[in-house]
TrEMBL record:
Its EC number is 4.2.2.2. It comes from the Eukaryota. Residues 173-370 form the Pectate lyase domain. Keywords: Calcium, Lyase, Metal-binding, Signal. Its cofactor is Ca(2+). GO terms for molecular function: metal ion binding; pectate lyase activity. It is an enzyme of class 4 (lyase). GO terms for biological process: pectin catabolic process. Pfam families: Pectate_lyase_4 (PF00544). Residues 51-61 have a biased composition (Basic and acidic residues). Pathway: Glycan metabolism; pectin degradation; 2-dehydro-3-deoxy-D-gluconate from pectin: step 2/5. This is Pectate lyase. Transmembrane segments: none annotated.
Length: 377
């Protein structure tokens, strides 16, 4: 009887140990899940120190000699203009405009069959952004955004969260009203050429902790603050998002980004904002109108890791109804080249915290207001 009691006691003890081990395993899994959830949070959900640790690896994409990249852009522009001019002098027909980005792909009569050639047409710091060049085409057929956690196949949200490289195109004209931020995954191109696609009257695009994204040919306007909701960022993960500011395109801790040929206007915060260690960015050929704080490049005067931010701003039209920040620069190196400034109400280009702003070949048409004629602030 004593032996039987001992065996029973030993069995109970073993069962207790197994239960403790199981609870520890579950607890460890929950901690891992929580860490992953916190990583996809917006900047308001984590400390500055934690965000700095996440951003640090992306700064390796900054080039050691930004002046060389700026000189390369100058050379490309000069050579392209010279070639177009000489051909016209000789009486040859040319579709060239002198804009090296456009001339790279627009002169191909079969560009719709060779869409991915666009990935070879970038200039400046974002020239190596390949987007979804090495992936398959994904055709967006459905403009709806009914469920940001479980997006339907055929929607833009379902396309951008995939882990694989994708070149995303649209079957027809559409207006997409996003319920929550459109959180991009790496190696994606959104290509709106050939159709009329609006992202409007809701949330807009967030490029956060990713790399190699191209945004081309979209109309993005009337973006609203959204958040305090669950949003999917990949096929295997969704997480809680606090309130987003309402930028048209928000670039946060990301690299190799190219924003080209978009129409941007009238959003709650910025039209294109790049912060928190983002680098290797080109913003080109965009038409921006009817907005206050147009473009912020650099998180704050105290956030010194933005010293490695490098951005090319080229061939943009800063148009009607703009007030300031075209762009507003902090810390990094910014090549502002061949842009057309036809309207502003406070100032065009601003800077603080010792940025290098290399401004070349821009055209400024100052406002008639004698107190608002500053090109630089």
């Amino acid at each position: 009887m004593a032996v039987s009691n001992n065996w029973a006691f030993a069995s109970l003890a073993l069962l207790f140990l197994l239960l403790v081990a199981a609870m520890a395993t579950v607890r460890t899994g929950n901690v891992s899940s929580n860490v992953e959830t916190e990583k996809v949070q917006s900047s308001k959900n984590s400390t500055m120190a934690a965000r700095s640790e996440e951003v640090e690896p992306l700064n390796e994409h900054a080039v050691p000699d930004p002046e060389a990249v700026a000189a390369e852009v100058e050379s490309i522009i000069d050579m392209n203009i010279r070639n177009v001019t000489e051909r016209r002098k000789l009486g040859f027909f040319t579709c060239g405009t002198g804009n090296p980005i456009d001339d790279c792909w627009r002169c191909d009569p079969n560009w719709q069959k060779n869409r991915k050639r666009l990935a070879d047409c970038g200039i400046g710091f974002g020239r190596n952004a390949i987007g979804g060049r090495d992936g398959r085409f994904y055709v967006v057929t459905d403009p709806n955004d009914d469920d940001p956690v479980n997006p339907k196949p055929g929607t833009l949200r379902h396309a951008v969260i995939q882990d694989e490289p994708l070149w995303i195109v649209f079957k027809r004209d559409m207006v997409i009203r996003l319920k929550q931020e459109l959180i991009m995954n790496s190696f994606k191109t959104i290509d709106g050429r050939g159709v009329n696609v609006h992202i409007a009257n809701g949330a807009c695009i967030t490029i956060q902790y990713v790399t190699n994204v191209i945004i081309h040919g979209l109309h993005i306007h009337d973006c609203k603050p959204t958040g305090n909701a669950m949003v999917r960022s990949s096929p295997s993960h969704f997480g809680w998002r606090t309130m987003a500011d309402g930028d048209a395109i928000s670039i946060f801790g990301s690299s190799h980004i190219w924003v080209d040929h978009n129409s941007l206007s009238n959003c709650a915060d910025g039209l294109v904002d790049a912060v928190m260690g983002s680098t290797a960015i080109t913003i080109s050929n965009n038409h921006m109108t009817h907005h206050n704080e147009v473009m912020l490049l650099g998180h704050s005067d105290s956030y010194t890791r933005d010293k490695q931010m490098q951005v090319t701003i080229a061939y943009n039209h800063f148009g009607e109804g703009l007030i300031q920040r075209m762009p507003r620069c902090r810390h990094g190196y910014f090549h502002v080249v061949n842009n057309d400034y036809t309207h502003w109400e406070m100032y065009a280009i601003g800077g603080s915290a010792n940025p290098t702003i290399n401004s070349q070949g821009n055209r400024y048409a100052a406002p008639t207001n004698p107190f608002a004629k500053e090109t630089c602030y």
